[in-house]
Amino acid sequence: MKQYIIKFLWFLITSYALQSVACDVCNMYDYTGRQNKSFVGLFYRYRVMNGYSHINPTSHRFFVNAPSARVDHDISGSNFYQNKSNADFQKYQVVDLRFNYALKEKVNIGAIVPFSIGQAYYAELYYLTKPMSDSSIHTKGFGDVLIFSDYVFSRKEEKWRAFIKPGIAIKLPTGNSNMGASGNLFPHEVQAGTGTLDFLIRLNANARYKNLGLEWVSNYRFNGTSRKHDYKFGNSFNINLNPYYVIDLGEDFSVVPKTGLYVELASSDKKGNQKQLNTGGQTLYANIGLDVVYDKINIQTMFQKPIQDHLYGEQMGNAGRVVLGVIYNF
User: Torsions phi, psi of 228, nearest 5?
Assistant: First the structure.
């Protein structure tokens, strides 16, 4: 019965008429507290992609590292060619500084400042008749700053409370999108920034009856085109839906287990007017997480495991994600 429910939800989501990659540059991870308060927070995100569905759709590893003996090359725009292997991977780590100010508990304004570390490893490269060798690409730097605002509609009764927060956000092209080596540009997806001005519409909501609650976090992202590289990431859409239960352990101390589903959809990227192969797709994740709340401190943990992964062409599949956060409310 469970698998039919998952398939039905997947059908509803993917029939939204969106051609859609599940990637970090497509969407922003959002945070919705159970109360609307000002906060400053530090988040860490870890994401891995590896394994090709046309080679072995079940071959995914969550912890990966390139071997110490390797030859550094850039395969984008160069004369190196790749033989795809399940040893290939892309690994992304991002640290976010987040700030939110609640004005009279009705209007939120805030910003997200990311610092990213990216790595792409390709096990088998060759240059015409030269022997094969491996290649590893490393990037790091501050990413694109995102500024957001939303309005809060809320209601609170004796046993239940709820709020809904529609909002907008703008992503500024502050991150470096020109990293490369030997005169060649690294692939767009491993750059710290996208070089584009993007616009997002957001809808966050939270409802709670006694100790049982449900949180909804979603956004749609309209991506601009990089004037320098004439490159546009595909527009994207995501939804995070998590039931949770509040376990009170003291006057100012509680733990909050939660589980749910997260979906990302993205259309294919474009170079000029040319749709790019091996970009775009849909991924459905299962979520499991735990929040620990003590007074004004909120510690968040979330693990996301793909349960449906449909990426266009011959892309590396999603192996999973971890999101950790520490928030101070004021």
Answer: -70, -40
The proportion of the chain whose per-residue pLDDT surpasses 90, expressed as a percent, equals 62
In the chain, what's the furthest Cα-to-Cα distance? 75
In the DSSP assignment, the letter for residue 192 is S
Burial class for 251, CB neighbours closer than 10 Å (0-12, 13-18, 19+)? exposed
Q: Kind of pairing, strands 81-82 and 198-209? A: unpaired
How many residues make up the chain in this entry? 330
- pLDDT, one tens digit per residue, over 23-64 is 443 344 566 666 778 999 999 999 999 988 778 767 788 888
Distance of alpha carbon 137 from alpha carbon 318, whole angstroms: 19
- Look at residue 185 in the predicted model and tell me its pLDDT: 84
Domain segments of the chain as ranges: 2-290+301-329
Q: Using CA atoms, how far apart are residues 76 and 73, in angstroms rounded to an integer? A: 9
CA 43 from centre of chain: 12
